[in-house]
Inverse folding.
């Protein structure tokens, strides 16, 4: 089910700069029991991403209304009350050439997808990861933004097809640990929580920010800092996060094994409460 | 006029990974007097770009036939026998997630565009450039490839709207000079020709390679090397190149002025001959 600028459509004009240059941003929103989770935060990030790219962000009330329609549709037509909504905003149509048109009309795409199924309960049992060969390019102008230029993630995720490995660690071109291919990465060392700075590369996840807030509320020491492979592999606990998976503990990276520890479990419990409390009012 | 997988279409399925992730490559081909210039070279680069991204490249004969149809259409329906053909190949449709589908069917898009008009004869008179603030991220896995992740170029080209400036110099995040926003960049110093290495960032242009070959034929010393802003600004001659503009001499970057010199003119003359000799046989 897809809405393009409010109309039921499953296609987009080829001249759209989203296709031509990846000139746009997106959000992936979890729908649980018919409610879009952390909707305000997703819309805030969409707006700040649009602002960074000088794309005129669609009206917030309009987006909320279309996402609410999407949720109602999910409840009526999908076999589950859980689903995923993807929102894409592109700069719209505009010529053959990189220069953005002076007055572009952005394209907004709201699409509904079934909740992903996983063969195991990774939330409880944890996952195995590997180090990816594909690196994240360093670029402060684009770092943090959930934009449509995602070839690095595509190439990184294409590196393995072993079903026993669920996620890959991505380093930047300087060899610093940044994130997973589809998730942010945290670790615990001596009861303190750490994650990589995303000023140079990476995507600033909505759940990542929730976890930073939660760490404060739960009284954990938290530091955002440059992370090396050695620091990561010397961790007591490791986990990955995104809006759909929440938190997956990491029990293995390559040949290195990790315990699923108490801070991971506390943050999982806290995140569950945040998710339940932050549903859309619609 | 647009062909999608051989059918007249002006839309693409939203699930196409070209839109979702910029998961594809493209070529921009000059058509002069009804003939696509340097077609073999464009198709070779399309193929090597597809190979680098593990996209199954469409059949070469099929592409040649569609491009030839496009040229015939241009001759019949455009007011000029000169035109631009853009070819896009994406990985095709495939799920919500970075992981490429095991068996994806690539999407090929061949579109026809009018020859761009410029207010002045930049080929003769030269152009003015500026240094862009937006940097090119360093990533050896993607460097050289003409892929669909082009936000850096979009942001760089959005930096100015002064009609007296025709192109911008882009540096990588280490401050090295790489190329223009839509062109490769060469300079001449003490009768030797130089251009930046593109192992870390940038797009390996078709005309760039033709000029490297021509420099050899014309007996100019040529070196591909890391280029600093200081080296560029100390040049005797500077020019930019791409498949549509050919060579535009650079007479100014910011407040620095440059003569349009003899090597630039020799390469322009040589390139004109190469273009005339390398037309498609169709």
């Amino acid at each position: 089910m897809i809405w393009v600028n409010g109309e039921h459509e499953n296609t987009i004009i080829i001249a759209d700069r989203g296709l031509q240059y990846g000139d746009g941003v997106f959000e992936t929103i979890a729908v649980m029991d018919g409610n879009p989770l952390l909707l305000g935060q997703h819309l805030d990030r969409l707006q700040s991403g649009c602002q960074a790219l000088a794309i005129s962000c669609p009206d917030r009330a309009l987006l909320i209304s279309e996402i609410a329609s999407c949720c109602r549709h999910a409840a009526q037509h999908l076999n589950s009350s859980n689903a995923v909504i993807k929102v894409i905003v592109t700069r719209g149509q505009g010529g053959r050439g990189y220069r953005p048109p002076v007055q572009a009309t952005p394209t907004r795409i709201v699409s509904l997808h079934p909740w992903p199924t996983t063969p195991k309960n990774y939330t409880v049992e944890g996952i195995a990861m590997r180090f990816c060969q594909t690196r994240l390019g360093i670029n402060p102008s684009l770092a943090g933004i959930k934009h449509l230029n995602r070839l690095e993630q595509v190439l990184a995720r294409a590196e393995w097809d072993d079903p026993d490995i669920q996620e890959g660690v991505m380093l930047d071109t300087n060899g610093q640990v940044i994130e997973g291919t589809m998730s942010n990465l945290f670790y615990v060392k001596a009861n303190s929580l750490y994650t990589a700075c995303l000023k140079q590369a990476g995507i600033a996840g909505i759940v990542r920010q929730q976890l930073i807030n939660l760490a404060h509320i739960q009284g954990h020491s938290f530091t955002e800092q440059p992370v090396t492979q050695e620091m990561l592999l010397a961790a007591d606990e490791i986990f990955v996060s995104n809006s759909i998976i929440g938190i997956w503990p990491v029990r293995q990276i390559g040949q290195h094994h990790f315990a699923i520890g108490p801070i991971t479990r506390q943050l999982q419990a806290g995140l569950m409460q945040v998710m339940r409390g932050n549903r859309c009012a619609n």
Observations:
- Chain B is about 30% helix and 30% strand.
- The domain at 2-114 of chain B is CATH 3.30.470.10 (D-amino Acid Aminotransferase; Chain A, domain 1).
- The longest helix of chain B spans residues 60-77.
